[in-house]
Amino acid sequence: MITIVQDSINIQEVITSVIDSGAGGIDVFIGITRDNANGKKVLWLEYEAYEPMALKTMEQIVDEARERWSVKKISIVHRVGRVDIGEASIVIAVSSAHRKEAFEACRFLIDRLKHIVPIWKKEFFEDGSVWVDSRK
Fold first, then answer.
1. Looking at the domain that runs over 2-126, which CATH code has it been given?
2. What confidence tier does 42 reach under pLDDT thresholds 50, 70, 90?
3. Domain positions in the chain
């Protein structure tokens, strides 16, 4: 499951999608909208994506993870549009025979995604908004 959605992410569905009888562990990263950034109160976030390229690049980083670690299944779901405080903007799940590979692959996937996938984040505050460098 590699997809971009406009509505709330079904976190349990993402986790269930990576269950495998040969997997002894599943690692999950859930990116949640927090209520502050740089000392300012965040009201909500908005994400935009160049979807055809974003999906292609997400598939590329999944292939890279598979080359580096022995994983069973990988799912990445990223949300676009408005994401309110406490809601998930991204869920990554990785299953593998052993926990080490799942942890390492999951961390690689979120870090690589933030650096190369064409998805942009805008933070909204009481006094305006700002585009955020997602590579941080």
1. 3.90.1170.40
2. very high
3. 2-126
